[in-house]
Design a protein that fits this description.
Structural class: mainly beta
Order of helices and strands: EEEEEEEEE
Strand content: 35-45%
Helix content: under 10%
CATH topology: Lipocalin
Radius of gyration: 14 Å
Protein name: Lipocalin-like domain-containing protein
Largest sheet: 8 strands, antiparallel, barrel
Organism: Rubrivivax albus
Keywords: Signal
Length: 144
Amino acid sequence: MKSLKNIAYVALGCAVGTACAQQIQRAPLPESHPLVATWRIDIPSMNCYEEYEVRADGTKHSRSGEERNESEFVISVIPSLKGFYKWTDTITKNNGKPDCSGSFTKLGHVAVNYVLVHPSGQRILLCEAEDMNSCFAEFHRVGK
């Protein structure tokens, strides 16, 4: 896994695994899905944090620096044979303020990432592909 110390910022909206704006239909998840929770990553080098509230109704609220986003997503209900959940996320609302890195996320931005859940259910890795070497952020659970 790439060292998190070498990553200046992480944001689902700024992830490398992005696609051109496209329509996706949000897909509700069971309340028991391991990603339905609030996830956080602290970025001490920027005196900042990012937080994602993944909701069972297929929406996500995120905060990064001054930025506040709403998005709709499709997350696989079960992991792939490699153990990853595919997560396609489209920004639907944005307050127009900068994230932890000073960047701005455009409405309609689509990010496609893969998530590996730690066996404890308390940590997740966000990855560009179904490969541990592509992981770029580790989040911890802060609430259900």
